[in-house]
Amino acid sequence: MMLKLVHLLGVLVCSGQAALQVSISLNKVELSVGESKFFICTAIGEPVRLDWFNPQGERILPSKRMALHTEASRSRLIIYNAIIEDAGIYRCQATDAGGHTEEASVVLEIYQRLTFQDIQSPQEFRHGETAEVVCDVISSPVPVVVWYYQDKEITEEHHSRFQVLANNNLQIHQVTKADEGVYRCEASVEARGEIDFVDIAVVVNVPPVLSVLQQSFNATADYQESVTFTCLTSGSPDPLVTWHRKGQQLEPSEQYILNRLEGGRSMLTVRNIRQGDGGTYSCRATNKAGSQERELFLKVFVQPHITLLKNVTAVEGSAAMISCVAEGEPLPDISWRRASDGQTFVDGDKSQDGRFEVRGRHGKSVLTISGVRLGDLGRFDCEALSRIGGHQKSMFLDIEYIPKFLTNHTIYYSWEGNPVNISCDVMSNPPATMLWRRERFTISAEGTANTRVHSAEGKSVLEVTPMSDRDFGRYNCTARNNIGVRYQEFILAQADVPSNPYSVRLSAVSQRLATVTFMKPDSHGGVPISYYLVQYKEVGLQDWRDVRSHSIQTTVVLTGLEPNTTYEVRVAAVNGKGQGEFSHTETFQTLPIREPSPPAVHGQRGMGKAYRLGLVKQDDGGMPIVEYIVKYKTDKEEQWMTKLVPGANDFAMLQPLQWNTRYEVEITARNVKGLSEPTFYQFFMPQKPDITAESLFSGLGLGAVVGLGLGALLLLLVLVDVSCFFLRHCGLLMCITRTLCSKKTATSGKGKEIEEGKAAYLKLPLKEENGKESLKPDTIEIKVHSDNSIHTKPDDSKA
């Protein structure tokens, strides 16, 4: 802004009085904006007032920015914080008593110093936009502004994207991250030689760039599975990454774990995935330059789960509808299975008889059963199946129906004084109540003098004790439930004794035994047969002997009969009422006494040179077998050896035999009547066993071998102890001897034996593991001689 110069010529007016003279301390003043200054006006003469006037000619009154301090001939004008508008000519006017005035003036020039106004640093811009770096500098006169970057002046010649605007701002076209840095805005006023600068940091913000490694994820619910979403971000400044679902920002929790790693990697982990966790998740990156968002999708597969399946009760003959509702992802297919026979039904199926039909959609299936039957009662399984898995639940179809009587047994027999139970068995659902009627009268639960009622679930028993003919006749059982009522009539008839059995036959007749068989009687008299009575006697005798059948078997064996004797036999049936008539009498004769049948034989090798011959008794001919005559010889010999075995024995032991030899045997049984036909038998004696240590131990287990080793060690210790006893007068045996006998007797006894040179013998049996003698039933002899030598030898007396 240019300063205006005003030239003021003072005019002195002479009025004939003493002239006023006015002067100001300064004639011309330069003042920068914001500075303060004062001026002093002095009057010579007799002024009565001093006034100041602003450049607009207005009398100056005291204010906050302009203050006046006036005395008799002196006045001070103070200007605080000067502004451009304060520039101009200020006049000081003095007035005397006569009204004459004199004035003086001062020229005030105001200039603006270089001033950077509200310079912001850093100044931020968005990548790719046109940036305008603001450098607001004021001065008067207008300053010259030059921009520098990296200590080099920015000119349009060398920087095509850079331009200094008329308002001194620096414009950068399509600013990039490379344009970031510190820029210097330098302003100067050549007229005053004034220069100043300000450094401005330019920051270029790059909008976020967001990418995902995988956009779609699969998981299965309710299996404690976890899924981790990953977003890769870049931008300047580093973007803030947030995760969102259904419009809500996700915060860290037990289910959601948020992680930020180096390299702009942000992760969201969804833990313990459930069905409701499926859907869209958003990764949002935000910074000063903008934001970007990418969507990720979580597909949650859910195991099929049946949510609705209830037991159903239907009435027989009506229709039943069974519903099964299941959920899952993907939606499962539903099928039905009848537990009674395993038959399955799927959507759209219809049974051959048309009674079973399945319809379903959207996770719901309905099994409809038309004309429900009792056979439909039971468990039905609903199975929901998808490629993820399956779920099965069961329900029970209960059928309600009118009471049904379970038996056609409606006629009962009894006799006077004999109680009988008339059972009314009912099947019903719900359970039926039952009562008994006799003619038109109801029999109470407490009963009467000769009737009693016993009740249980599905059963009512009427106990009747007939006392006269009037108690026989018809009784009625009534069963009722909320489905309906049914009746069944029972007849109590008088019982009789059974009729006679027939077709009596004799079989398997021998000297002492006979088997009687017969046919059941045509009528049991209304009461079950208890047993059969068989009577028999010798012809010519009067007394019958009784034999009862076992239960109601129609075969009876007669024992203790006499040989070659004629008998009569008859049969009668017995029930609760009594014994019926006898059958026709049959006659039979037992067989006469004869020689026994040939015995049966089986062989089994015994121990060593023995052979055990088993004897199986056959028909003894009516008399006990006295003895068995066993003859045997080798196949190369002519002479037989004979062995007699008592008839009560069931085996014969042949010994001693020869090794590696075939034997022929002839066995005959004898009773008082005579000899049976002979039975012939052959057997072979094997090679003599090779008794070696290898053969001895090869068949034994580890425990047996250890046992035998310990036995041998014990035997060795005994031998050593015996040797010490006789040779050195010490050892365990010596201690025992000294304890039992006096020392003197023991010493003299031993000395005498040694002097005489008699041998001491110790016979020890050699045992096998099972306790039987090994090799032979012999003993081993150990002889201690007077020359202190020990000899052992087996006892060959039985070789």
UniProtKB/TrEMBL annotation:
Keywords: Cell adhesion, Cell membrane, Disulfide bond, Glycoprotein, Immunoglobulin domain, Membrane, Phosphoprotein, Repeat, Signal, Transmembrane, Transmembrane helix. The keyword Glycoprotein applies. Residues 1-18 form the signal peptide. InterPro entries: FN3_dom (IPR003961), FN3_sf (IPR036116), Ig-like_dom (IPR007110), Ig-like_dom_sf (IPR036179), Ig-like_fold (IPR013783), Ig_I-set (IPR013098), Ig_sub (IPR003599), Ig_sub2 (IPR003598). The keyword rRNA-binding does not apply. It is found in: Cell membrane. One of its GO terms (cellular component) is plasma membrane. May play important roles in selective fasciculation and zone-to-zone projection of the primary olfactory axons. This is Neural cell adhesion molecule 2.
